[in-house]
Every structure is written in C-alpha cells, then in structure tokens.
Amino acid sequence: MPPKNEPKERRCIVTRRTRITEDLLRFALAPDGSVVPDLKARLPGRGVWVTADRASVAEAEKKRLFGRAFKAEAHVEPGLADRVERLIETAALSSLSMARKAGSIVTGFAKVEAAIGKEALTALVIAADAADDGARKMMAALRRRFGDTGTPPVIRVFGSDQLGLALGRANVIHAALLEARASEAVVRRVRDLTRYRDGADRTEDEIGSPQAAPQD
What we know:
With 216 residues, the chain is an alpha+beta fold. It contains seven helices and nine strands, in the order E-E-E-E-E-H-H-H-E-H-E-H-E-H-E-H.
C-alpha cells in the first residue's frame, strides 16, 4: 500500500506525461458541456488534467483535446489560457490580502527596511513598476542581512496598483512578508503564477529570485 501522504499523480492530456497533481491544472465538464477550470480540484464529476503552464492550456484548446479526453462534446470558450491566468493571478493577490488580515505583512519603505534588518522573513515584495533606486536599496538591505546565500525570495510580479488593491492602501511599492503560514501561502500562489506564465519546469529557486531586481 502506498504511503498515506504520497502525492497523487495524473496524466496531462497534452504531453501525456504523468505528474503530481501540484504540477497540473484540473478542468471539469459542466452540465452544459462547457470546459471549466477547476483550480482547487473540487468540482464534482470527471476531470481532466493539463500541465500547469500557459502553453499547454493553449495547446489543449487549439488541438481540441478536451473533447477527446472527456469523450464527450466539450465547448471551450475562446481565450481559455487567458482566463486561467487571470484566475491564478487573482488567487495570488487574494493570498496577499489574507496575509494582511493575518498581520504577517509590513508595507512602506522605512518599515520594510527595518523588517529586513531584524525580522524573520518569508519573502520581500517589490512592485513591478518600482523605481530602480528604491529596488536597489531594498536589495542592498537584503544582502547586508543575509549575504549572497539564503536570501528570501523576492516577488516582483505585481504592479503597485494591484498591490494597493490587495493590501487595502494606495500605491504600495514595497512589502515584507513575515514568517507565517499566510506568507508561505503567498509564495506558493506566486510560484503557481510565474510557473504558469513562464513554464512548468522552472526550479523553485528561480521563481522570484533576488536577481529579478536591479543590483548595485
């Protein structure tokens, strides 16, 4: 008998490769025959699985693989890959909101810089449209604290307007995720998003790495 906590595996309908379900996206067939993204893998009925990257979802749509996999008429609304990306992005931003409610996120340049110097950090968040000078100062603070190894990941995938909406304040440029379960959830969701955009075979340390921000 396999171990109780052994990861579940499913086969991608595009690549035909077997992967753990964490590396796949589930799609369900609605009663009206439409294909529905099931990111939480909770919808009833039979599901099919696609490698969790944009190219695979687009290929499944283009080659009409959903109908073949479901062995039924399956209607795919045009732009499925875009819709899935929006859902994953929304989940990542929602996790930031949850971290704020849990009290595990600090915002504002001075407060973030202070947190880098003394707090246990899960990740640093820098807005994608942040000025290079501010980003360099944050990276310098990280290097002073952690050196060149063991540096917490840097998340730089959201604009300041998106961060502001998620965190309930205007013009958020810098934020620090303090060590907590809610912060770990943010990192997981952001990894899901960057993996979907850039390819499912990226390694853990490549996602949100400090090199994403300007260096001195």
